[in-house]
Amino acid sequence: MNKEDLCYMPATQMAKAVREKKLSPVEIVDTLLERIESVNPKLNAYVTLTASSARKEARRAEQAVMKKERLGPLHGVPYSIKDLTFTKGIRTMRGSRIYEHFVPDEDPPLVERLRAAGGVMLGKTATPEMGWKGVTDSPLSGITRNPWNLKRTPGGSSGGASAQVAAGLGPLAQGSDGGGSIRIPSGLTGIFGLKPSFGRVPVYPMSSHDALSHAGPMTRTVADAALMLSVMAGPHEADRTSLEAPPEDYVGKLNRGVKGLRVAWSPDLGYAAVDPEVKRLAASAAKVFGELGCKVEQVNPKFGDPSPFFDVLWQAGSAGGLAPYLKRWEKKMDPGLVKVVKLGLKISAAQFIQAQADRHAYWDKVRRFFEKYDLLLTPSLAVTAFAVGRLKPSASKQRHRVGWLDWTPFTYPFNLTHNPAATVPAGFSKDGLPVGLQIVGRRFADMTVLRAARAFEKARPWAHIRPKL
Q: Which of 69, 99, 118, 440 has the most CB atoms lying inside 10 A of its own CB?
C-alpha cells in the first residue's frame, strides 16, 4: 500500500487492520502527519496540530494491541476536532483573537468519548470567527481553501474539517452545525456529512445559539460516519437537551436498504433560487432512490421560507454571546460578525418571542409533512464552491441580513426543526466542483438517514475520487 492510499483509507478498514495487527497506529499517524506537513500549507485545514501527543497516543495504542488489551471501536484511528469545540490542554481559538490564547481545562463529552474509544487526535481544524458564517476565513487563522480548487472556498463553518477529510489528512472529523455548518462544507468538498437529530450528540458548553447547534461526523464514507456517531452519541448530564435514548447500532444496521420508503424530492423547497447545473445533478441523484425501491415523488412542501425568523434568532444569539466583547475587541473582529452582533442588539424581546413562535409554527408544518414521507431530498446547496474571501457567490444584493442564507436555503430550515439531515456527493459540475444531495429524515430517524445515504453510496460510489493536490 502506498502512502496516499493509507491516508485515504476508511476509518472502518483502518480500525480492523489495527486490531488484526496488519497496520500499526504509529505508521498511520506518521504517514498522515507527513501528508499534513506537505498539504496543509496549501489548504489551511488544521490550525493547531497536536503531532507530539498524537505520536505518543499512537505508541500507546500499538502497545495495547501487542499486549492484547481490550480495544475500543476507534483504536488507533486518527480524528480531528473543530476549533470551536473545547479540548483539554489544547488551545481552542474559535477563529478569534478574543480566544487566541485560551486553553480549556476540560473535554466536552464528545471528545471524552472519542478518546475513550481509542481514537488519536491529530489536531484542531479551522473555523470562521465563532463559527458565524458559511465560509471559512478568520482574522486569526486566515483563509481555508477547497482541495478541489484552491481558489474556491471549502464552505463553513466546519471548513477546516471538510478540507481535511477531502484532502486525505485524516479519515474522521468532528463538525458542528448551527445553520448548515456540517452540510455546507461537506457538500462543497464532496464528502459525507451528517447533522444528527438535535441532542443526539451532547454539546458542551452550550452555544449562545442554543437549540440550533448540533454536532456530528464528517467523513469520506457513510460507514465511517456511522462508526464515529456510534461513539459520540448518547445522553450526558452536561447537555440538558441531550436525548435519553442510547445510540442505535448504526454500523450493524447500515446496509438494510431503503426499499419501500416514501421519498419526497424538492428541487427548491418552493422558494429557493438554484443554479441550473446544481439542480440537474441533484435531480439525477434523487432518481437513484427510485431505482433502489423507494416511491419517489416530486413535491413543493409549502413550508415557506423560514429565513426572516432564522435571521432574528441568529442575530440575537450572536449578540447574546458576543456583545460584551465589542468594547475591547471590535476592531480585531471579523467586520461581518460585528455587523451581525450589532443587528442583534436592536432586536426587542417581543421580536425574539415572535421569532420563537414562528419557529414553532414552522416546526409543526415539517412534522406534518413527515407523517406522509420517510425522507425529503433536496440539493445540499444552491451553488458550487465560489471564490475564497467572499461571504456569498457574487456581489449581488443579499436579501438576508445574516449574509449567507441566500445560497444555503436548504440547510438552516432543518436546524430550526431538529431533523437529522445529511449530504452525500451527487456528482461534479463542468468545472470539476462537487455537488451534494441532502437527505432529511423525520426527527430521531438518524438510522433511516444513514441507511439511505449508504444505499445511495453503494449505487453511486464516490470515495475513490480524490482531488489532485
A: 440
